[in-house]
Task: inverse folding
């Protein structure tokens, strides 16, 4: 890309959509195969697996995302209770062995608590990843029906050309949606195998037996995949029309050198490489969304992110278009080392009306936060929560409006907003899944189209009819206006309640005022080691790449620190070296420390399980003196946390109490 074009692109990004959209799809893939994302290893107990998943979903919610793609079928196996296929080996280490609970049911339950959409991610054709090392359960299809498999080196796949294969895959999908309350079914990019040099796929016999009039094998293969996509789509819509169906194909449909309708790119083509005609699926309306894996940087010359997103936007209109981001590539080359590469990709997406959001691959990278990309993502483009975009072609029906909205001024000058949802509803389109509390100050009107008007999201629990939210981010002597809307599972919004207003009094509210821009803390998953005074720093389970380029919070050096108030510190020695205030807190704290001499400093914050939730200073040389570091906790759960200072001979831990 020329310098002039790149400069124009940066100007376009910087000038477009400074305000966050109210609705934006923000998803992440959670891969099970190979223990890529979850669980961290085979053979963990049910309790350990569940806690790992809770922690991962907490992180996903903390980072401002609103959807997960949970892999439940890797290779004709199951990460859920199934009578059709054996349990996945990536749970227990032995295919066919139960982990002692149902991971999909558990994941759905935990996602509901966090208001995260959950899409069941399945691989339609892959049967055995490596036949040389496979230890297959007796009920695996490679054992029961080896005749429906094709060999491709050590890989085994279901033969896409056989009608019984289409029927079987569709049966698996329908079993999932009939028994589990998933929000969507998701196919990945693995259809026919990706080409391997000197390896051929022998499906000539199937072609001869089931050609359906095709004389060109490539066209026939594409049609085999098309038939599966259409059959699954039709089946889902017939049984549970509210469930979404989408695919994440390889990011290049065709190159312009192969077709005038292709993209300006030079790379592997999904159309001819693994015979997936994703453009046709969009044109025929078989998918509710398409999520191309545009895993290139904005500086790539062979397949440029900006040019590919522009092509996809031009070719997708009716279904939703979500862009898959290859964040696993962060730090892999000079372009992916740019701190704002991923935020700029998201900003660029927002410049297209047809791009409805993003999906990150994968959760491990989100957790490891290499080059602080996730910090930059949250600070630059995901500062506020976003609602999942609605799909009007599925239904435009909305739930009824909440009732009996009230606002009460509490003794401590905070505001409690209450409402009811007293309806007995049976239709999925009428049931409320969550409520949005809108707020404005001073002016009488609330802009319901602005993300900045969203004060909070309250999840509706089944069987509960009254709800409340206490707003402790208010200022004295200020008028506040509130409205509440209900949203169903397809994110259609009810009519909002009438506005209700009140004015706070002159009493000072405990806690810090809400910042204009939310700064989310770094989160790096550690082993579950509790933090205690005099403890060594916990060992990291996964080390973030490129520790050299660290971006800390702004640090204010102070020569004469004020005496902290309401300080409760568990320290190894005296409190003079590490202080936290205010404490307890509910919004933002200042962590103050003193260096008696120059030292290399690291300052982290951990939760009570040993999970790092903040990296405020990392291996930074600092002179002797007093320092103050702000730490925002708006998106953290109530509980106990620990600040850990390591500076030469000074090793201190301070307890932090977060109250809501």
Result:
């Amino acid at each position: 890309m020329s310098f002039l074009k790149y400069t124009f692109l940066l100007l376009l990004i910087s000038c477009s959509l400074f305000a966050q959209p109210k609705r934006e799809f923000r998803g992440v893939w959670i891969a099970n195969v190979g223990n890529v994302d979850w669980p961290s290893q085979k053979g963990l107990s049910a309790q350990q697996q569940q806690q790992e998943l809770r922690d991962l979903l907490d992180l996903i919610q903390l980072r401002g995302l609103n959807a997960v793609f949970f892999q439940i079928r890797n290779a004709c196996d199951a990460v859920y209770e199934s009578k059709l296929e054996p349990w996945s080996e990536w749970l227990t280490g032995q295919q066919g062995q139960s982990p002692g609970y149902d991971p999909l049911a558990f994941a759905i339950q935990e996602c509901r608590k966090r208001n995260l959409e959950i899409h069941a991610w399945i691989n339609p054709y892959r049967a055995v990843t490596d036949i040389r090392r496979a230890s297959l359960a007796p009920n695996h299809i490679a054992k029961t029906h080896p005749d429906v498999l094709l060999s491709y080196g050590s890989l085994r796949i279901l033969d896409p050309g056989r009608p019984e294969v289409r029927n079987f895959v569709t049966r698996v999908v329908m079993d999932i949606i009939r028994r589990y309350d998933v929000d969507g079914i998701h196919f990945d990019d693995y259809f026919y195998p990706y080409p391997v040099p000197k390896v051929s796929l022998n499906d000539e016999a199937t072609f001869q037996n089931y050609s359906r009039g095709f004389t060109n094998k490539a066209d026939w293969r594409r049609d085999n995949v098309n038939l599966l996509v259409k059959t699954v789509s039709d089946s889902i819509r017939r049984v549970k029309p509210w469930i979404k169906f989408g695919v994440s194909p390889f990011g290049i449909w065709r190159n312009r050198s192969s077709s005038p309708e292709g993209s300006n790119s030079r790379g592997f083509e999904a159309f001819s490489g693994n015979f997936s005609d994703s453009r046709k699926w969009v044109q025929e309306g078989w998918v509710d969304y398409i999520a191309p894996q545009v895993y290139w940087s904005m500086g790539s010359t062979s397949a440029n992110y900006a040019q590919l997103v522009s092509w996809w936007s031009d070719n997708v209109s009716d279904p939703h278009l979500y862009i898959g981001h290859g964040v696993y590539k962060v730090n892999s080359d000079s372009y992916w080392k740019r701190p704002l590469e991923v935020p700029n990709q998201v900003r660029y997406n927002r410049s297209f009306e047809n791009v409805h959001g993003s999906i990150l691959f994968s959760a491990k990278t989100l957790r490891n936060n290499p080059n602080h990309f996730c910090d930059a993502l949250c600070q630059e483009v995901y500062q506020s929560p976003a609602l999942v975009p609605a799909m009007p072609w599925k239904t435009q029906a909305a739930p009824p409006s909440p009732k009996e909205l009230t606002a009460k001024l509490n003794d401590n000058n905070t505001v409690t907003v209450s409402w009811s949802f007293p309806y007995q509803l049976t239709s999925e389109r009428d049931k409320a899944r969550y409520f949005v509390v809108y707020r404005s100050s001073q002016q009488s009107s609330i802009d319901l189209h602005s993300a900045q008007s969203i004060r909070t999201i309250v999840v509706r629990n089944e069987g509960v009819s009254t709800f409340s939210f206490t707003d402790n981010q208010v200022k004295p002597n200020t008028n506040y206006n509130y409205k509440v809307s209900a949203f169903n599972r397809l994110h259609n919004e009810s009519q909002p309640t009438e506005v209700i207003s009140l004015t706070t009094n002159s009493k000072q509210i405990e806690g810090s005022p809400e910042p204009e821009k939310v700064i989310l803390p770094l989160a790096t998953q550690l082993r579950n080691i509790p933090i205690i005074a005099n403890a060594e720093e916990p060992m990291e389970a996964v080390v973030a790449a490129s520790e050299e380029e660290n971006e800390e919070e702004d640090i204010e050096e102070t020569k004469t620190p004020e005496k902290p108030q309401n300080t409760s510190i568990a320290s190894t020695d005296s409190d003079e070296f590490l202080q936290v205030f205010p404490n307890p807190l509910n919004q933002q704290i200042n962590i103050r420390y003193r260096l008696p001499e120059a030292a290399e400093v690291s300052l982290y914050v951990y939760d009570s399980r040993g999970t790092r939730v903040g990296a405020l200073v990392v291996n930074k040389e600092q002179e002797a003196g007093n320092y103050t570091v702000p730490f925002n906790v708006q998106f953290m759960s109530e509980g106990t946390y620990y600040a850990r200072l390591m500076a030469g001979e000074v090793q201190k831990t301070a307890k932090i109490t977060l109250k809501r």
In short: The first strand starts at residue 25 and ends at 30.
